[in-house]
Structure formats: structure tokens, C-alpha cells
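YM 10:42: H4MPT-linked C1 transfer pathway protein sequence, as discussed on the call
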Amino acid sequence: MIGIDVGGANLKIFNGKSVAIHYCPMWQKAPLKELLMEYSGKKAAVVMSGELADGFLRKTEGIEFIFNSVKAAIPDSLFYGTDGNFHDKPVSSLAAANWFASADYLRGIYEDSLLIDFGSTTTDIIPLNSFDSLKGMTDLDRLRNGYLVYTGTLRSTIPSLLRTVNVCGHETLVSSEYFSQSADAHLVLGNITCEDYTTPTPDGAEVSVDASLQRLSRVVCSDLDEIGKAGALEIADAFYNEQMNLIKKYADKAIEKTNSKGIIVAGIGSHIISDFFGCIDLGVEKNMFSDALPARAVYEVSKRTGIF
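YM 10:58: structure's back
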């Protein structure tokens, strides 16, 4: 049996011992069925969030595409929904249920903690002691409650958080163009490595510290030789601080609202959050596979419920 998480940018598969992660942008002609064909003949527990990709006219269309693609490759598959049940039809509750699978899995292990999952694109803030009240929540509900913060380790644009930045002693407006992304900021600050930079670069250029510094300089419509490395690092640092403070703001609100005791973190950027908060990092926990937590989670939940 395997656990599958079909995201908007990445396909993650847990086979009980290890994780495979494939870049699979759902807004393009995603080869989802083709990537899953090697698992044909297995049983699969599946969650998704890729239905929101703008390659689909509506979320229902995205749900059906993902459902049909997975079923074509792995007929013996069931899909977990935000109602806490597994389904064999493309029902609406399948939309963005991956975070809820993580909550279902971890609530019995860290029952009173707040989970922060810092992924490539988004940050999930999940009070594990409030599982029943989380049932049925859509992404819209979570945005309204501060449980979904649309900023991530790799794919967030720099101007998504910065309107101005102090560069070389001057308060400077930023361009809203897609010149640079969060992966550039975290790379030059040493928060991730070049190997961690798994998303396409905004300019199609190489993944390197120098290339990221150049991309960051474009945020203020300059080249690196105009503002220098120090100026580009000021942009990266300003983005990092804004991102961490934004996540902290909504984590603090969730803790106050739910009386959660302590924070645990997961996701590809878990170490960044744990360094900032000084909390438990599931990324260093043996066999937790934090960078693909929903795939691991839906696998474990399916085993617990005995659906296969």
C-alpha cells in the first residue's frame, strides 16, 4: 500500500519506508497518471490540494481530473476528505484535504500541539486539539480563520510580502513583477541549499547563490552591480523577517483561540520555522518524513481505519 498527496506543484508518494517527490505542476499538462503508473497494482490512500490550480476552470474539474488520473493508474485507490472519511467518488470534500489528513494522524501523538506545516507554497496552521471543529473546513474557511497562510519556502514571490524595502540606506518601493521568489531569499541566507531549490527559477537561469542575488536585485529594478551583494541580502533578510512574523502572528492567534500547548513544525522548510520559534521539528524525527507529511499521514490513517 502507498500514500499519495497530489499537490498543486508536487506529487508526493509514501511507500511505507521512503518518500518519492515529483515536480508535477497541476496548472500545466501534468503527467499525473504517467508518474503513477509504476505503482499500478498497489492499493493507494490519496489526498489532494492540486484541484485549486488555475489550469482548471473550477475546483470540481480539478477534483475529477486528479481522481480520474489516479484511478486510471491505480484502480484500487480511495480518497480522503475533509469530512474524515475515505471516498470512491470525486466528491467535493476531497478538495484541499491534505492538511486534514496530517491533523488526523498527528492528533493522537501530539494531541495538544499546534502544527505548522511550512511547505513550498503555503503554510498550514493546525490546532490538533480542535480536530472536530476543523472538519469540513475549506481553504476559504481556513484563510478566514488564519489557519492557511499563503506563503512558502520556495514559490512565494518577494513582493507578495514586501511593498518597500530599505536598500543601501534608501527606503525603496519594490516591483510587483515575478523577478524573484522565496527560494532565492532562503538560499542566499543559507536557510536552504541549491539541492533544496526544487522549483523552476523565475528567470529560467541557474540555481546558485550568485544567480539568486541577481534575481533579488531585480525586485528593486536593478542589477547586482548597482546595489551589491549587501543590498540584495537586505532584500532577502527583509522578506525572511516579514514571512516569519506573518506566520508567528497567526500561530499566536491560533494558540490563544484554542489554548494549544506548544508548537510542532513540518514541511520542507520545517527547520527554518523551528529555528525561528525554537520548537519541535518533525523533520529531524526518525521516520516522520516531514517533507511529505500528508502522504505519510493518509497512509497511516488508512491503516488505522482498516479501509483496505
